[in-house]
Sequence to fold (117 residues):
Amino acid sequence: WMAAFIGLVAALVYHGSHKLLLHLGIDDPLDASAVHGACGIWGLVAAGIFCTDANVAYAGYDINTACSSGDQIAVQAIGVGALLAWVTVTSAACFLILDVVMGGVRVPEFIEGIGLD
Fold:
């Protein structure tokens, strides 16, 4: 039942993040940010919320109490923070390099009007 609930919440997270991107005017035609970003973060957090010590032992890991004590949620939250920091730094570096080398990543405005597809 936990997997079904996590999937149901993921659908709501996707729908909400999709609507938020539209509201903010952010162009993400494939919804990659909603699917991989928002739903990925939910998946990381959900792993900490719904983990059980029995499942950790079943998976072959050493027996510990990280799940029952709530420590696993903190570990997952730290993981989310680390991933967000990594993505922010590497994306900024890539876009800075593209800006210096190519003058940015946008096409001229008249080509935007025509369309790229």
